[in-house]
């Protein structure tokens, strides 16, 4: 199990790296890649002059992890609603009585379904016929669960004469099955969880690589990414503030009106926080001895922030922060 998890995570990281390189290269004009030498040259250029990796905060990380799987959740929900009668019937077998049965025979079966357009699909499963006695009366059955059939390729595990455990409805002994109650529901849930887990691992690997790439890029690219992030955030969430301060004169055309009417942008003075009298800026990241915040030029020295507003929520764990929080 542990080995499978390690392999899964490794494959996720490798596929994520391949996807990142692919998207970065082919975001350019595909005509530029006429030979393998062109691709190698592009990879070298990517290494020597990497693109700006956008900033992704906690909310963006969470959305990036959940939203891609949202259609999967919808599909599972619709499938569960469609199968609800069978699920309820399966759960109702939770109090069925366990008894012994003898395998009569087992074989592999298949069934093909075609729609009106001629598209066909085939289901494969293992059919096990068993014989059992209940209160000295002999019965036969073949049901695996009320929800599903046994997966294919298992007929060899059920030779004729083999004794197996089954479950019988004491009120109607003609009814029996091989897996009762919630165990039968879990059999179906396992593969769904495996699909979701694999999808989450791929997405998580992409997001982690994205986050690592953001921190490893040059300070210049990092500042560009933070500037773009702040500008988008301000434009989307603070339009009212911008309208209320439309007459405010900006230091530079590269700046904009940020949270609480604070001028924000790359051309804001580095010591902007000394004259800032608004509420505590929202801290997003830690860069060296500075907090990355949502206004001004995007940074406030940690020692200044802690002395004026205290340790921001969710932070205060680094040695530098602790040094100033204890003074």
Structure explained in plain terms:
With 327 residues, this protein is α+β, with helices and mostly antiparallel strands. The chain folds into 3 domains: 2-78 and 197-216, no CATH class; 97-179, no CATH class; 219-325, no CATH class. Helices cover 44% and strands 19% of the residues. The chain is built from 10 helices and 10 strands. The strands form 3 sheets. It has a 5-stranded antiparallel beta sheet with strand order 3-2-1-4-5, with no helix packed on it. The chain has a 3-stranded antiparallel beta sheet with strand order 8-9-10. Strands 6-7 form a two-stranded antiparallel sheet. A hairpin with a 2-residue loop joins strand 8 (283-287) and strand 9. The longest helix has 36 residues, at 181-216. The two termini are 49 Å apart. Mean pLDDT is 78; it is low at 1-6 and 237-246.
């Amino acid at each position: 199990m542990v080995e499978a998890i390690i392999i899964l995570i490794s494959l996720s990281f490798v596929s994520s790296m391949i996807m990142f390189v692919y998207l970065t290269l082919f975001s350019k004009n595909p005509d530029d890649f006429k030979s393998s030498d062109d691709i190698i040259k592009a990879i070298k250029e990517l290494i020597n002059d990497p693109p700006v990796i956008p900033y992704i905060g906690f909310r963006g990380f969470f959305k990036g992890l959940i939203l891609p799987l949202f259609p999967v959740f919808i599909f599972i929900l619709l499938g569960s609603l469609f199968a609800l009668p069978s699920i309820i019937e399966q759960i109702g077998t939770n109090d069925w009585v366990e008894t012994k049965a003898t395998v009569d025979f087992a074989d592999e079966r298949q069934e093909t379904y075609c729609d009106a357009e001629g598209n066909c699909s085939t289901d494969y499963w293992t059919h096990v016929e068993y014989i059992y006695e209940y209160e000295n009366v002999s019965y036969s059955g073949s049901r695996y669960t009320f929800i599903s059939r046994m997966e294919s390729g298992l007929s060899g595990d059920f030779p004729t004469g083999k004794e197996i455990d089954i479950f019988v409805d004491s009120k109607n002994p003609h009814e029996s099955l091989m897996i009762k109650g919630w165990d039968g529901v879990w059999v179906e849930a396992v593969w769904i969880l495996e699909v979701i887990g694999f999808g989450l691992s791929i997405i998580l690997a992409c997001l982690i690589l994205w986050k690592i790439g953001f921190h490893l890029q040059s300070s210049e690219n990092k500042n560009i990414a933070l500037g773009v992030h702040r500008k988008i955030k301000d434009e989307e969430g603070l339009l009212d503030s911008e309208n209320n301060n439309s007459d405010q004169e900006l230091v530079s055309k590269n700046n904009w009106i940020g949270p609480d009417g604070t001028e924000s942008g790359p051309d804001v003075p580095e010591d902007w926080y000394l004259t800032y009298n608004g509420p505590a800026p929202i801290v997003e990241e830690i860069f060296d001895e500075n907090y990355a915040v949502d206004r001004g030029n995007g940074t406030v020295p940690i020692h200044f922030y802690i002395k004026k507003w205290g340790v921001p929520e969710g932070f205060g764990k680094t040695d530098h922060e602790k040094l100033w929080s204890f003074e």
